[in-house]
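Study this chain:
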Amino acid sequence: GGGIRGFMNDGTTDYRSHHAVDSLAFGHCDYAYRNLGRPSRIEIKQAASSFEVAVDGRSCIRSDKIKLPSGYFFGISAASADTPDSFEAYKFILSTTSSTFRQEPRRDMPLEESSPQHHNDQASKQSGSDAQYTELHRKLQIMGQSVDNVLREVLQLATKSEGRHQEISRSFTTKDELHTIDQRIKSIENTLHEYHTQFANLQGLLKDSHSSLNEGLTQQMTHRM
């Protein structure tokens, strides 16, 4: 989110101590200037019959009751409230209706006579700034593309890892299956125990039968003799 507001003050109003500074604005518009990935361009136009503020080619504030006086200075400052912001001024240009551009001088530096060499120096500095901005924009685009590639690879690795995890999970026996196998083993152990008991009883019967046969044969042989 964000917004652009215009204020007028002749020095008699203390904005820092005012309870509602926004109410002092003579005009405003909503403009989401945060995190656009590019600088925003603010244009302040003073015509003979109107005053206008535009942001990135979009008209924001317009009034026919405001007229900037001549002989004044322009200044740029920045401050943050609850939401931390970082502001940078890449360029500050003044122009007239005849499209004659000049760089605004600093207030603490004396004005000098304009000369062809001075204009050439200004043009060179302007070209150098444009080249630096273009190079910075190109590097930011490359960096953004690299970040996108890294994120894409991370997502691919995450997808593969999830698939591998599911495959490994399917290869392991579940808790219910382990419980079923354990019950089957216990059932087999109980059956073996029953068989062991039956075999022991059968062995006892065989011993008793063998003893009875031996006694019977012995008695028969004694009677015959």
